[in-house]
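Appendix B, record 7
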Amino acid sequence: MTTAESGGGPTVRRILLGSQLRRLREDRGISREDAGYSIRASESKISRLELGRVSFKERDVADLLTLYGVTDEDERAPLLSLVREANQPGWWHNYTDVLPGWFQPYIGLEEAAALIRTYEVQFIPGLLQTEDYARAIMTQGHKGLTAKAVERRISVRMNRQRLLMRPDHPRLWVVVDEAALRRPIGGPKVMRAQLEYLATLMERPNLTFQIMPFLFGVHAAEGGAFSILRFPEEDLPDIVYLEQLGGAIYLDKREDVDRYMEAMNRLCLDSLPPASTADVISRILSQT
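Structure tokens (predicted):
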């Protein structure tokens, strides 16, 4: 049995614990219904636990381990410890007043990813935004937000960016439509500062930045923006994240992930090579 590394965060720990409980249940040939009965819960509760979508009670996990025949204390201890770690709140839980519930799991997954691949159409990705650029997006796109809520959301975005500076930082591979580099979010001054900031990031060893040019025409990602997250833990599948106006979709079925992986690979092949990104940004800057 494996446990998450210390930097994995509660979201990944829940997913890891759930996947291990599912494996133990299936190895014993026990149905979800019977497992639920043993902890005074429903079959759907077991399903949510195994997917890591809800928090765990240590007593429930202990009862499930007994049902699954895991009685040796040396085997039980790591999983029960994982319960306590999985229930510890992440830093973003301090911002639940301004964060939609559907976005909070993504922050936890992002924190634990080893590789983040993302395609953006309208905006510079959040992990690479300046404060003023982020503020312009939030004030123009969310007219109902108070000034305090805007600043708290900006704080979340800036905190998210810290993961790129960690010793165990993930690799970030970005493909951005040329439109995102030319759309004057916040006006010329804000946009110029954002482009200049991007130019300073190009030498980072953990960042690959490509541009999908206007001249290419129709390409593999006509469906819009998406991200693919890969994790260092073997038990965790790749996850595709799709954000919508009022929610988000998380895909982890192999056939769904493969479809988006193929689109991302095609995008990377069809976009301008990373070595030309700095020149393109410089050219756009000269035109602003």
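Remarks on this record: Confidence is low (pLDDT under 50) at residues 1-7. The radius of gyration is 21 Å.
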